[in-house]
Specification:
mainly alpha, 6 helices, elongated, transmembrane helix
Length: 187
């Protein structure tokens, strides 16, 4: 019985509100609920309820496309061109590429049987440098635009241009020697 006395002591000091609500309290409460429900406009009319599933499908499709592009176009995977680093690097790549194309066209124009071996050797060396550049493009993608890789790519361009210029000079020397040898001979 000691527990009963403890419970009585506990609840004696508390003041509970045990008054009954006034008459018609429930009726007034229901009337307020009814007024609130009438003033709220329905959230979904016919047009919105038709477009809601369509919009959900379109949003899902858009999210899927963005995720798909993110997986396959991650800037730090696969090959990266020098032009993808910055606008300045794009200009640099375009400049070097145009110089290489010009020098290569000039070299191919001067191809003769006398200098064919030199030109073919140069083209082989250019292929090696091009393969190195392809490896550097992969490294650039993996490294996240590391400055050392960018510098190596620019150096590769410069090596190709230097090689082409050197071969053009040798071809010009061969052509000059050929012309001077023919001029010195008397008939």
């Amino acid at each position: 019985m000691k527990n009963d006395n403890d419970l009585k002591d506990l609840f004696e000091g508390l003041d509970f509100d045990i008054a009954e609500p006034t008459p018609r309290h429930e009726d007034r409460f229901r009337e307020k609920l009814r007024q609130r429900s009438q003033t709220k406009k329905p959230r979904h009319n016919g047009l919105i309820s038709l477009w809601l599933p369509v919009m959900a499908v379109a949003a899902s499709f858009l999210v899927a496309v963005l995720i798909f592009q993110g997986i396959f176009n991650n800037p730090f995977t696969g090959e990266q061109e020098l032009a993808n680093v910055s606008p300045e690097m794009k200009q640099t790549q375009e400049f070097y590429s145009s110089v290489i194309r010009t020098e290569l066209a000039a070299l191919k124009e001067q191809k003769t049987p006398e200098n064919e071996a030199v030109i073919n050797d140069a083209l082989t060396q250019l292929d090696i440098l091009e393969k190195d550049y392809e490896t550097l493009k992969k490294d650039l993608g993996k490294s996240g635009h590391d400055q050392r890789v960018i510098y190596a790519m620019i150096t590769n361009f410069q090596k190709r241009i230097d090689l082409l210029k050197m071969v053009l000079e040798k071809v010009n020397d061969i052509n000059t020697l050929k012309n001077t040898n023919h001029e010195n001979k008397t008939i």
